[in-house]
Amino acid sequence: MYKLLREKSVEIRFHGRGGQGAVTAATLLVAAALNEGKWGQAIPSFGAERRGAHVLAFARVSEKPVPIHSQVRWPKIIVVLDPGLLLVEEERKRVLAGASSDTIVVANTPEPVDVGGVKLYYVDATRIARELGLVVAGWPVVNTSMLGALAKATGIVSIDSVLNAIKSYWPGRLGELNAEAAKRAYNETKLAQAEKITVTG
Amino acid sequence: MAFNIKALPKKNYIMPGNAACPGCPENIGLKFVSMALGEKATLVVPAGCTSVIQGLWPRQGTSMPVLNIVFAAAASAASGLSRALRIRGKDDIVVVWAGDGGTADIGLQALSGAAERGEDFIYICVDNEAYMNTGIQRSSLTPHGAWTTTTHRGNPGRKKPLPQIVAAHRVPYVATASIGYPWDFISKLKKAASIKGFKYIHLHAPCPVGWRFDPGLTVKIAQLAVETGAWILYEHENGKLKLNPPSNKLVDPSKRKPLEEYIKLQGRFRHLTDRDLEELKKEIEENWREITAILRAQGDL
Amino acid sequence: MALEAEEKTRVRRGTIVPMRGNEAVAYAVKLSRARVVAAYPITPQTIIVEKIDELISKGEMDAEMIHVESEHSALAATYGAAVGGVRAFTATSSHGLMYMYEVLWWVAGSRVPVVMAVVTRAIGAPWNIHVEHSDILSTRDTGWLVAMAENNQEALDLTVMMFRVTEDPRVYLPGIVGLDGFILSHTVEPVEVPDQELVDEFLPPRRQPYTIESGAPIAMGNIIPDEAFEEHRMDMHESMREARRVIEEAGREYGKLTGRDYSGLVECYKCSDADYLFVGIGSWMGDAKIAVDALREKGLRFGALRLRWIRPFPWDELREYGLEKKAVIVLDRSISFGYAGPVFLEVSSALEAKPSMVGVLAGVGGVDVNYEDIVKIAEHVVSLVEEKGRVYVPALWYHLGEFYPMKPGPLPTRKTPRHVNKLLEELWSKKS
Amino acid sequence: MRLSSRKPRKSLLPGDTALADSSPSRKDELVVEPGDHFYPLSIAAPGSMGRTGSWRIQRPVVDAEKCIGCYLCWLYCPDNTIIMREKAGPRGQDVASIDYEYCKGCGICANVCPVNAIEMVDESKFISQS
């Protein structure tokens, strides 16, 4: 099982702000994985969940069930729902904690940003959310867009599975809108060019 | 209402030879509960005198089913029991039989919760005005000035107005009663049983051991409490207050027997100072003022 | 072979649903057709109550919810309903469980089946809502059966099973299903939800020894002579021991129906041929399994023995797997202050302290412990045993990657911050 | 990074209506089966505290001549130890009699009797007589 964990499983960490739906994103990822006959697990934020605060969620996707419930310390994928989390040094450190050379960061940001030499995929999910009117209480909800980006960047689940998961989670128009967001993000997600990145210690 | 003693059921609802002290008012009260409700009564009894009165396993001293329960949980256990029996299509009348401690003190939270939820049972507080089961310690229903083993110089506080507190929950039925007035108590029980929802009856029950009087005087002292106006018989039905006989004739203080007649028979008031007696009278007068004010507002006075 | 094939065909797959551990419990309660649920919300149990109310409101579950005003009342109302003859359920955590503690005893002593979920959480002060096992282990002596889930699937399965076991006339004791706060209660993972028909087949109509209702003038719980009281306790003890057979039967049958066998009071992961054994309860034993594999890759033959049941206590299994080991490492997520972890104390007595035994305290108050941590713990103990021979260490703290023996030596605990101390001193000097 | 995928499986999310149980619930069956245990249950029976007649200091003695069969003593007796014997009085009236096996001698009967037909007599008298 240790081998399974190392070779056939992917550990993912979501970083967002309270209210952005990081926990829901992790949950939808599990549904998408399940849709493909895989096993998945979503662990919610630990700590006081307050609107605007830096919130973490963890997920695992694996070919077979893994009997593990601890937090993700060495993520292979880091999903960043809020661009601001990569701009403030202290928060950026938390986002990149435990990342290694083969880690992928999938971030909501209009322009590539410095992620310490880690491979970065990016998409302007905030714009997509606004365009589609996915705004709750003044906050653009970017979680479904980021799932589309995650599918494009990593392929751990297919975009179709993501869309299915979204539509069964929110039956009706809300599901359609969120699915559209995921699809747009999937199409717009880009790999940052290596030369644009300034690698810091 | 005409009251025919001989028409009461002859069945022995209280088993002779149970563990009640001689002259126990709780036995008398329990007897009236079963006479009024017959085979349909199912008791829930928290810790208190009645836990002991039932006597020793494998016998029990009442002819009713009894669920004994921890001190603070009578109203909540009765909530669950009455729900289950209703779900199973039973028409039992679930009755909580709790003392003043189990009602006004440790059990008040559960009582309030059940009243607010409108649970379908009758809650009877059998009020002997102190923790008698543990040896006469004060409760929040001990009257002002009364001696107990924890108020050697007389109770400095005053009796918590519990029927009013329960009535403030806007439950369909709240009544006071006395073991000295069986016809009143029995008719109130029958009325409560006919109403769906939360019903509360506060039963005044003079305790010879704790109040320090001759056990033969239990009934007489209960009646004196009412005749002097110290205990008022009334009922709140759907928010409307009504005085019951003989209290209805005692709105005029001159019709009441002097309080001293009630006090002097009880050792617990032996050391009552004049000031304490005045305080006690004031407390009783306030109760009457409150009731008459409501009656006036209702247009019944 | 024919029998095996026949058994296999009986297995009926349910619907796989990603859900939180608390939701798994709620669905189990619905599938078990509980008719009365009384509960008071407390983090991290809340979702169970919310979900059940949602299921009732949507008409998917035929039950009444009693919105009680406290946990004390929650268990009392659940108990009242159970005595009245219906399947009843409640759930709580931490302070809620502490508040209902006296009622636990009353329920068990009355021998009426009741099922409760305990979502484990630290007990204050100070406030901490995260996982710890002090709450559930405090129920150890109350006469309740106590089981502990490793994952959400087990939380569902054990809850359904608990109704059956507690309602078996050989048992007639109430039961607790434990699941780790947040780690299971709030974590989403795939759970196979069995069909209603399957659960109906597994779980017979409610059975109980008596009811309190009109027509039967019996009293439950009046005063009993001392000798009879002692005999009553002896009978409870016998029933608890008998429960293990009932659990084995029910677990086997559940396995035949669902493909998930719960006949064992323990779950054994590679413990037969192991030289060293982890023993513990709850979700982190999953991480311990990964640690076992990692250690075996390093040439250390480890195994993991998870106590699925705490009461009845899996004495025989522990002795079967544990007596001959070089060392047994007990992982405890709570401490009996000044001595050792409660699970260690239980395991140590069962093994008569024959193997080397080390009680490791970790993860208290939700501190994350993963498989790498458990590997570290194992390596530390192995080096200890290799260096000193047979060892017996009741309490060894593992805290943020370091080990702290309880004695001798200072612990890495923080002290009151200096500015707080200063303020206290000022206030105190003013007073005096 | 891509994981191999197996055959898709039917999956649902929490709250999905497909999980709803459409079958009508079973009848609320309840099987009361005592099993072989020690339950802390008691049955209604006289003498749950023994023969409480021995508690008496004074004994109520009914004067059948005076008794008017009003039932007040029967009504108030806390221990149900007053037995009304129908038409057994000298004037054909109902008459109170006392179950001395259990009567605790509290004296309520004597106090509530409107015609003073019950007298409380020291138990010692009866001891010396017997």
Describe the SSE topology.
The complex is a heterotetramer of chains A (201), B (301), C (432) and D (130).
Chain A: H1 2-7, E1 9-17, H2 22-35, E2 39-43, E3 54-62, E4 77-80, H3 89-96, E5 104-108, E6 119-123, H4 125-131, E7 135-136, E8 139-140, H5 143-154, H6 159-169, H7 173-188, E9 190-191
Parallel strand pairs in A: 1-4, 4-5, 5-6
Antiparallel strand pairs in A: 1-3, 2-3, 6-9, 7-8
Helix pairs in contact in A: 2-5, 2-6, 5-6, 5-7, 6-7
Chain B: H1 25-37, E1 41-46, H2 49-53, E2 59-60, E3 66-69, H3 74-87, E4 93-99, H4 100-105, H5 108-117, E5 121-127, H6 162-167, E6 173-178, H7 182-194, E7 198-204, H8 208-211, H9 218-227, E8 234-237, E9 240-243, H10 259-263, H11 274-298
Helix pairs in contact in B: 1-7, 3-5
Chain C: H1 2-10, E1 15-20, H2 21-31, E2 36-38, H3 46-57, E3 64-66, H4 71-83, E4 88-92, H5 94-99, H6 101-110, E5 115-120, H7 134-137, E6 145-148, H8 152-166, E7 175-180, E8 188-193, H9 196-202, E9 206-208, E10 218-220, H10 226-258, E11 266-269, E12 276-280, H11 284-297, E13 302-307, E14 309-311, H12 315-322, E15 327-332, H13 342-350, E16 356-361, H14 371-388, E17 392-399, E18 402-405, H15 418-431
Parallel strand pairs in C: 2-3, 2-4, 4-5, 5-7, 6-7, 12-13, 12-15, 15-16, 16-17
Antiparallel strand pairs in C: 1-8, 6-14, 11-13, 17-18
